[in-house]
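I hope you will forgive my troubling you with a question about protein structure. I should value your view on which stretches of the chain appear to form regular backbone elements. Here, with my thanks, is the record as I have it:
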Amino acid sequence: MKKVALLFIGLYFFLFHTSYTQTIKNYVQFVNPFVGTKNMGHTYPGATVPFGMVQLSQETDTIQYEQDGKYNGTVYNYCSGYQYKDNTIVGFSHTHFSGTGHSDLGDFLIMQTVGELKLNPGIANDSKSGFRSKFKHENEIAEPAYYKVELLDYNIVAELTATNRVGFHQYTFPKSDSTHIILDLTYGIYNYKEKNIWTFLRVENDTLITGFRQTNGWARTRTVYFAMVFSKPILQYGYKKYDKNVYRGFWRKFDESRNFPEMAGENIKAYFDFKTEENEKIKIKFALSSVSTEGALKNLKTELPHWDFYKVKNESQNLWNKELAKIDIDALTLKDKETFYTALYHSFLGPITYMDVDSAYKGLDQNIHYANGFTNYTIFSLWDTYRALHPLFNIVQQKRNADMVKSMMAHYNQSVHKMLPVWSHYANENWCMIGYHSVSVIADALVKGNLNSGFNQQEILKACINTASYKAYDGLEYYMKLGYVPEDLNSSSVSKTLEYAYDDWCIAQIAKSVKDEKTYQDFITRSENFNQVFDSTIGFMRPKFSNGEWRKDFNKLSTHGQGFIEGNAWNYSLYVPHNPEKMIEMMGGKSKFAKHLDTLFTMHIDDKFFEGTEDITRDGIIGNYVHGNEPGHHIAYLYNWTDEPWKTQARVRMIMRSMYSNTPDGLCGNDDEGQMSAWYIFSALGFYPVCPGSNEYAIGSPLIKSATINLENGKKITINTKNQGEQNVYVEKLILNGQELNRNYILHSDIADGANITFYMSSNPKIR
């Protein structure tokens, strides 16, 4: 789908950087939560723990999804709520996506003000017009699990931290008889007037508020419950309801607007008033649950029974240090180190925990389930993350990734369609993008030995087969009948055919693992369907109609209406990850194919071919190679299947240098829940999973000087480079466990129980 990133402010770097050589490293200090893209939605530089349910962050505007009854393209800049270029903050909400190209969430916005009560956020160029406030980046501090900013219009200092399920706010106020804390239940990301289905809140006592919010958005039936506790008793409170319903029932006998302990409606804003002394702190604990307000209270009491803000900050940052320490690197430069750990931080933001402390969660069937013996996760952006994020987890997050597969199986068992997730979040399938890439995640984990315990592999295979056989899904009926998706009956037909073929290969690998020969043969045959959409007369994949004829008005450069999604024929014709040898043969052999790749990286593509595509911008393009979007992420590694693997090394190093940095525009596209960052992690270490579901990693060009990967089994993968440098991008030789490697790939079995890898680098390519 799309992309995002992370950044750091110079003051923060100056104050907090540590030496490369210190014995105990604080990895948090090398992370820049501000990194993003120039014009697209950023990740949130707020407060969360690794894979945390609460992802608490500031919102910098209230852009609506529609304008004059049509899609408002500006909203795409706010996929994650925060834009670095903005200079006002409208509040702090508790749920976010990390740089997706579509959006939702932004639940339970809290804003603090003093003086006149305003319940409208106002407009960006006039902070006095509403409750928003100006801020400056020099007054921001952003660290993993901690965010601090001064709200200049109110002289309020806001600080945020979090546990897994509880957001912890601390606000330092000026002296005031009119201090307000606003709870905005109307706010959301990708908001429109019908987004809220219902909201409800109760003032349980003078410090405790409970309630819920139900929305219809990307997730069309999503309910989130909360429990909110103040550290100081409320002086008075009130609400404003923005509904237009004529019917009010007999609630009309009450004045619900002030000091009435219950409120319900489609769109509500509540406020809570206090008197504050100079520099007085008011704290808020805000717990979430998908199950009930009782569940939210359990989460709060279990995870955060005290009011020590900095204790939580330190404990949560220790969790980040533990996770980031799974890969310990020595980098060429400080900038490289910051970029690496920022990418690793992004890679561990999601999927997120989706269950209460008692293991209860709301399932896809909207009933309450219990995760027995595993952590249930949600936010599966699988069209993106199957490529590198989940393969990265199979090395450094094996237990979590196994639990993610169990979460996918729970989704399948609750699905009325009997399908594994496509793109799911918060007990909903949103059906975004194409393919059925859960099977890739499962196959990759199975092949790499991470699903050996606690899994019924026959049940897994059945789930994969059912998913690949659901005729109503996205052209599958035609694909199973014709061997391809016909463009006249289903759009993006070539992309779907190619991705289905790859996924079918993954199912074949699962069938092979469980010794189901018939299923293996059925799906290995289906995996050859990429042949059906290759036009040998032009050397490209091409849309085909249901009558077997090629589409005649065909433009290989355009991303619009040509049979592809978020890509063109040049990009997608190179998508046969499970059989690159056959693809190269089809395209004329190794020499011709290498020249084809050269052309891809060096040709010029006019803006007109992608200017209407939000997910592809000039920032992410090298020639006609699009790194700013996922379908091409494997392409630079394809030279390894030619006689010129040194070109992979040159291209990969160039991509790392030109497409990633530690600045606010440090990513060339949306991070898409960690995929963009996971590509960098693998590539910086020197290898990449071109075909998840296989046990091979293609060799690239490591950017680190050395690295230690700490495995869950207690073993270590040590990576060293000799003669590393800016000009020495080529691999002269590679020593694996004491033996020179005479192939262009590493096997997972080579590293699963620890390994020693040494890259000997050179400024000259090793030409065969």
